[in-house]
Specification:
It is elongated, with a radius of gyration of 42 Å. 27% of the residues lie in helices and 29% in strands. Strands 4, 5, 8, 9 and 10 form a 5-stranded antiparallel beta sheet that branches. Strands 11-15-14-13-12 form a 5-stranded mixed beta sheet. By secondary structure, the chain is of the alpha+beta class.
Length: 328
């Protein structure tokens, strides 16, 4: 290994000395003294320069040896940058097909089909440029489809670039997403963009298919509420037909049924407006409760109003309210 070391000059008694040492373990001294110092002969200086040149080929730029492996330098470019060499950013055009579909229906079909398969890149590629700014991130489309419980769909009519689809859903009750019916009708607008059409996903309108108000549904509500009341009388820790995430409202009235013996009497069924205070239900499940909620009046053995929500073909107790003042 070649070492080259320069020692800083020292001023001592107006004498200046320059020391250059360390060539393959040897040293060469070239001094320049002031008055009174001894000066080397030109022949000696030339000999010294010849010696340095012989031991350091190519000058002071150093010596390059080839054919030898240095362990510390054995790494790949990808490893040094902590990036897989073959990886492609999800936002790059190579992984994000942007071709527009030729019809509004084809654009909607491509988006929803990809969303149901969890393919956020393809779904995002079908969204209009302006709508991407409103949505924010591509994963939100998948999240919204999952939150809606979508499992299948069929394309319906197209009117003024707005596509109607019929959606099959997994019914459920959620204090975050509200009540999801077994099916819904969704209208999704599209816009001409470039040579084809893109979807304006954030402007879609969803109509849940809640059960109709009918004598048959009222009978089903009364049967479900009576089964719930009997389960409460038996002090069942997991009452029949009760919302598992917890009731809202005056829940103590339900607990009061425990150990009562008189047969529960479900007197009538009405809408949410029949409650004196429907606000807790609206706050707990959103304004759509005005569309799906049914209220069963229990006149004994403990008087109360029971609010139920549809879950598929079943009716589930989600809230309890005090009897109406008009019933006093």
């Amino acid at each position: 290994m070649t070492m080259h070391k320069t020692v800083a000059p020292h001023f001592r008694s107006r004498s200046l000395a320059l020391l250059v040492t360390g060539v393959f373990g040897g040293g060469v001294l070239v001094g320049c003294a002031g008055s009174g110092g001894s000066r080397p002969s030109p022949k000696a200086v030339a000999a010294a320069r010849t010696s340095v040149s012989a031991t350091r080929p190519g000058g002071p730029t150093g010596h390059l040896s080839t054919g030898k492996s240095v362990a510390a330098l054995n790494f790949s470019v990808g490893a040094a940058q902590n990036v897989a060499p073959d990886s492609v950013s999800p936002s790059t055009p190579a992984s994000l097909p942007l071709a527009a579909e030729s019809t509004p229906a084809a654009a909607v079909k491509a988006l929803i089909g990809a969303a149901l398969e969890g393919d956020s890149d393809t779904a995002w590629s079908q969204v209009s440029t302006a709508d991407r700014d409103r949505i924010g991130v591509k994963q939100r489309i998948i999240e919204q489809v999952n939150a809606g419980g979508w499992t299948g769909f069929t394309i319906g009519a197209t009117l003024s670039d707005k596509v109607t689809i019929e959606v099959v859903q997994t019914p459920r009750i959620s204090d975050i997403d509200g009540v999801i019916a077994s099916s819904s009708t969704v209208q999704i607008p599209t816009i001409k963009e470039g040579s084809g059409y893109k979807v304006v996903w954030s402007r879609r309108i969803t109509e849940q298919h809640y059960p109709d108000v009918s004598a048959a549904q009222d009978a089903a509500v009364m049967a479900s509420v009576k089964a719930w009341a009997l389960s409460r009388q038996a002090c069942d820790p997991a009452p029949t037909n009760e919302y598992t995430s917890g009731l809202i409202g005056v829940v103590g009235l339900g607990a009061a049924l425990c150990h009562t013996t008189a047969a529960p009497i479900v007197a009538s069924v009405g809408d949410l407006e029949t409650l004196d205070e429907p606000q807790p239900v609206l706050e707990g499940f959103g304004g759509s409760a005005l569309l799906w909620a049914r209220v069963a009046k229990i006149s004994g053995p403990v008087a109360m109003n029971v609010v139920v929500a549809p879950k598929g073909t079943d009716w589930i107790v989600v809230a309890i309210a005090r009897p109406s003042i008009s019933d006093s």
